[in-house]
Design goal:
Number of helices: 5
Radius of gyration: 23 Å
Strand order of the largest sheet: 4-3-2-1-5-6-7-9-8
Number of strands: 9
Shape: elongated
Structural class: alpha+beta
Distance between the termini: 49 Å
């Protein structure tokens, strides 16, 4: 082998070793999760849910491709599709999307007000669904967590006194957080 080729290979080897070393150091400097309980701060979401409950919100989606909300006065969305609103009427009806209407100036303002209530959430969410009991009080809520993995769905479920649902191996796994909250992981592919 010519001397130049050997020298070039040595340089490349040192570059690869340098990159690997920097990567290892950077990875170790990232904050590591101390707890074995995923989303152990779920309870910090309750004040946000209570604020949304005061506004009678049943659904709120906050994503770049879709913004939507449903409350006791109206249902609005930037897209009238079932993937945006999660409304079954959008996928089962040729007449439209149930009672959902496109955003107008007033609903843009309302959405901004509702979105501002999410500042206290400990996690970034795609959407929140809230169900109320017969007395009008918060009964259950689901918070779809924004994850970096497009084929994974994480959700925090608020359901006081729940019975942990059974897992579906490799597809759906549920983890107890506390007596009011559990975490659900879904493989979505």
């Amino acid at each position: 082998m010519p001397v130049r080729r050997v020298a070039a290979m040595r340089v490349l080897l040192f570059v690869y070793i340098g990159i690997a070393t920097v990567g290892a150091i950077a990875f170790r400097s990232l904050p590591q999760q101390d707890s074995t309980i995923p989303y152990e701060n779920a309870g910090k979401s309750l004040p946000v849910l209570e604020a949304l409950t005061h506004e009678h919100v049943t659904f709120l989606r906050i994503q770049d491709w879709c913004r939507a909300y449903s409350d006791n006065q109206e249902q609005r969305a930037t897209e009238l599709t079932s993937t945006c609103t999660l409304a079954k009427a959008c996928s089962t009806s040729t007449a439209g999307c149930g009672s959902y209407k496109l955003f107008d100036n007033a609903s843009e303002t309302r959405f901004a007000e509702l979105r501002s209530k999410l500042k206290g959430l400990p996690y970034d969410v795609h959407w929140i669904k809230i169900e109320y009991g017969p007395d009008g009080a918060l009964r259950t809520a689901e918070l779809a967590i924004n994850t970096a993995d497009q084929f994974r769905r994480d959700a925090l479920i608020y359901n006081p006194g729940y019975v942990l649902p059974e897992d579906i191996p490799g597809e759906v796994v549920n983890h107890r957080i506390d007596s009011d909250w559990y975490y659900r992981w879904e493989d979505w592919n």
